[in-house]
Amino acid sequence: MTSKILSYKQLELANALERKREKRIFAILDSKIKNMLPQWLQFSPDVFWMQTPEDQKNLETFAEACEFFLKQGIQRGDYIIAVGGGATTDFAGFVAATIHRGIHWIAVPTTLMGMVDAAIGGKTALNMPLGKNLIGAFHEPEEVWICTDYLRTLSSHDVLSGKGEILKYGLLNQEIYDLIMTPTFEMEELILKCANYKQSVVMNDLRDQSQRVFFNLGHTLGHAFEHVLRIPHGIAITMGIKYLFKAYDQKEGLQAFDKLFKKLDLDEDKTDLSQYSRFNKKDFWQALSHDKKRTSDGVNLVLLDKIGAPKISPTNLPMLKSRLEALSDFKG
Ligand SMILES: NC(=O)c1ccc[n+]([C@@H]2O[C@H](COP(=O)([O-])OP(=O)(O)OC[C@H]3O[C@@H](n4cnc5c(N)ncnc54)[C@H](O)[C@@H]3O)[C@@H](O)[C@H]2O)c1
Fold it and tell me: Which of 223, 247, 259, 265 is 20 to 30 A from 59, comparing alpha carbons?
């Protein structure tokens, strides 16, 4: 199944939801955006609220949500609407994938990260004590409704995190790069282009067998940065790409990275390792060796010969480590 990506203004979104009321609506909603939802949904008895989505993206809350919906009488032909950031849509998608062996769902991402990445592509997940996203299922939403009006209330931290993913798309796709480089571009147009680009790749490779693996650009280092520095995913991925390109002397890649970084108004301080006094190299190497994207004997890095031309470069941890250690930020 391929998700339909639709764009709505906030008012239109209320109408779109209204149209779905022909059926009974079950929903999983981030409580932070409660006031931005139609009143009837705010007071619906069929809503499971997420107060702290990332912390609740776990087995315990999953069991609570399933029990809640089953008691409310959810049927196999019903569907769930998920409104929130990536943690909410990952969680809701997993509930939808498993309840009655899978029911339809609609994703309404309310963060930049959700709009360009997390809500698209059907990777649903829960975190486990041993790591993030270790349990999950592929279950694409039937529709993804993008409403950029939600971004008005997003913290600057979360905006930067989403922009990190956009920067990655700019490196992987020439059209996205060109759009970002136009003197004035509309954020909404860029978001829709990124969402449709991800959807077009997923359509041909839902399960990470070919093109979809290129979305892992920067993720090997990025996950380790995210873990040891406790920073948002997209900021960690931006750092992952930058240090990977430096370590592998990807001159064209670095040039494009710098241009995108400036144009997207990303924050130098938040992506420079020297700014993090809490950085612990030992913890970083350990996190790197636990990355779930590793193969048994090594790491498949995504490198970039030029914009739009990523390639897989197999290596092993000692080689990667020695290249990183040659960089000034990793010395000492
Ligand atoms: N499935 C995938 O393909 C995929 C891809 C990337 C990331 N992810 C997952 O997505 C999550 C990260 O996404 P995220 O950054 O959206 O996290 P998130 O859902 O935790 O949202 C970040 C914060 O923003 C708040 N928020 C949501 N919408 C808001 C709004 N409109 N205004 C103000 N605050 C708002 C949330 O309550 C939260 O505090 C992680 O769990 C990650 O594993 C999944």
Answer: 223
